[in-house]
Design a protein that fits this description.
- This protein is α/β, with parallel strands linked by helices.
- It folds into two domains: 9-105, no CATH class; 113-224, no CATH class.
- The chain is built from five helices and eleven strands; from the N terminus they run αααααβββββββββββ.
- The protein has helices at residues 9-28, 36-39, 41-55, 61-77, 91-105, and strands at 113-114, 118-124, 127-132, 139-145, 148-152, 163-170, 173-177, 183-191, 194-197, 209-217, 220-224.
- Helix 3 runs antiparallel to helix 4 (61-77) and helix 4 (61-77) packs antiparallel against helix 5 (91-105).
- It is globular.
- Residues 1-6 and 105-110 have low confidence and may be disordered.
């Protein structure tokens, strides 16, 4: 049985918003000096750490790059490091990418097509094209961070209870293609982003349907036929 992720995509965005909100409240109460112009790199570090935990593996190139960049920006913003010295550290990114390429060769291969009944994926600084041919598609979760995902469900059939896809997009884009006959139910939370329905599918809150729950920050989701 596949282990469940610690964090789903919407949980990631929700946790970031909660942390920012708490810090701002503490600042307004004069308990903590929180200035976004100084502490914003913490967002990159938090996202990186969460992806390390949710990914279930120690080495995730995208996550470590976020942590590294967040740390560099945080040190410079608090005057512990001068911008003139940053150039000395940029080769660390090359090391991270190189190790990622080596470890990926021995990692799990992700096929472009699948007859699985659900989908569960996370993309950081990359892209995935996935074609699902399931006869009992039940849904799943997808999170995108600085990347893109294309999901093709046009040759799939919905499970008798319908399907739910939880899509989280942060600085990225997601495209979902569905059969024209499916009932569609879109539930979205967007901050500086958007969800665009380009289909002619009937919209319904009841019955066997595809429910797309989206959380988008500085990104976009497109639904097509």
């Amino acid at each position: 049985m596949r282990e469940k992720k610690v964090f789903h995509g919407s949980s990631l965005i929700g946790l970031i918003l909660i942390i920012l909100g708490v810090l701002w409240v503490l600042n307004n109460l004069e308990i903590l000096d929180f200035r976004l112009s100084v502490w914003w790199p913490l967002i990159l570090i938090i996202i990186g750490l969460i992806h390390l935990v949710s990914g279930g593996k120690l080495f995730n190139a995208g996550a470590w790059i976020l942590i590294f960049l967040g740390g560099i920006f945080l040190l410079t913003a608090n005057d512990y490091l001068d911008w003139d010295e940053i150039w000395r550290y940029w080769p660390v990114i090359l090391i991270i990418i190189g190790v990622s390429i080596i470890t990926r060769r021995h990692g799990r291969h992700i096929p472009r097509s699948s007859d699985a009944d659900d989908i569960d994926g996370s993309v950081v600084f990359g892209s995935i094209e996935k074609k699902i041919n399931s006869k009992h598609f039940k849904g799943g979760s997808v999170s995108v961070l600085f990347g893109g995902v294309e999901i093709d469900l046009r040759d799939s059939e919905l499970d008798e209870n319908g399907a739910v896809i939880d899509v989280s997009t942060l600085f990225g884009g997601t495209e979902i293609r569905i059969p024209a006959a499916w009932l569609l139910d879109i539930r979205s939370t967007t901050i500086f982003g958007g969800v665009e329905n380009k289909t002619d599918n009937p919209v319904s809150k009841e019955g066997k349907r595809l429910v797309i729950k989206s959380s988008t920050i500085f990104g976009g989701i497109e639904i097509k036929n």
